[in-house]
Amino acid sequence: MIRELTSFEPYRDFIQEINADPRYREPMLSTEEQFEGNLYSALTDPDKTALGVFRDGVMTGLFVFLIIKEEKYIEMLVGLSRSPAAYEEIADWLAANCPGCHVDFVFHPKNDAIRDMLEKRGASFDPEQFKMVLTGEVPAVDTTGVEPLSAQYEEQYIAMHDTDRYWTGDKVVKAPDTFRVFLAVDGGTVIGYIDVTKNNEENEPFDFLVKEEYRRRGWGRKLLAKAIEENRPKRMMLIVDADNAPAIALYHSMGFTNDPVPVNQCATWIAG
């Protein structure tokens, strides 16, 4: 049985127990800030829905989804369960209530309950990822050629932006209170960008790209240095694919270290 939740108070022990399990922990609940933004805010945010899965009156799963129906987009912000049946039931609910929606999941790679459900339903999986945190000294970097997003370069930025995500370039442009955007510009041509969150105590590069023909020329370092500089005095973290050796080397060289929080993985499913 699934029912919408109006309070988390009766389920605090369940939340703590599942999130303390290294196999089934929720990667999106690693900090107090994430608890507030991904869990507690669901009770007041009209775009978020908190659902409980129950068997014989006992909770077996707790889920929070960001649901933007007009864009047919859903993101699982919280998924806490050890029960394969609970994941199946929540997937059935999404298929019935949001058919055709693009659903993004983030989960611990060892959580076989959610993985099995997604594999059965034909989801696509991204590589495993891990978190890095800016803890070391940042080397001095000449950031000439890097500038904030402006109307002059907006069209070029949107055209080159990664479109395989919810936050496409046009959406980022419309959210100046959420992101800072810096561009690498060479001879009037945008050849790279970095989108960085700005409202958190620990911000992160959300998307980061340099055109292939301009890579290995220091542009990635310039963009990251500018993002770090403008983010101060706030903290910075990032999520990186575990198999992306060049990116990991760059981040280590810029003062980032591997966080002890375990890896996570992303998957995408079209509900239905």
Q: Please trace the helix and strand order, writing H or E for each element.
A: EHHEEEHEHEEEHHEEEEHEHEE
- Strand percentage: 25-35%
Q: Fraction of residues in helices?
A: 25-40%
Q: Give me the CATH superfamily of the largest domain.
A: Gcn5-related N-acetyltransferase (GNAT)
| Sheet with most strands | 7 strands, mixed
The oligomeric status of these chains comes to single chain
Q: Termini separation (Å)?
A: 19 Å
Q: What's the number of extended β-strand segments?
A: 15
Number of domains: 2
Instruction: Give the overall shape, derived from the CA principal axes.
Output: globular
Radius of gyration, Cα only, in angstroms? Answer: 20 Å
According to CATH, what is the topology of the largest domain? Answer: Aminopeptidase
Structural class: alpha+beta
Provide the low-confidence segments as ranges.
Answer: none
CATH architecture descriptor name of the largest domain: 3-Layer(aba) Sandwich
Side-by-side strand order of the widest sheet: 1-2-3-4-5-15-6
List the helices and strands and how they pair.
Blueprint: E1 2-4, H1 12-19, H2 32-39, E2 48-55, E3 58-68, E4 73-80, H3 84-97, E5 102-107, H4 112-120, E6 124-125, E7 129-134, E8 146-148, H5 154-160, H6 169-173, E9 179-186, E10 189-197, E11 202-203, E12 205-210, H7 219-231, E13 235-241, H8 245-253, E14 256-258, E15 265-270
Parallel strand pairs: 4-5, 11-13
Antiparallel strand pairs: 1-2, 2-3, 3-4, 5-15, 6-15, 7-13, 7-14, 8-9, 9-10, 10-12
Helix pairs in contact: 3-4
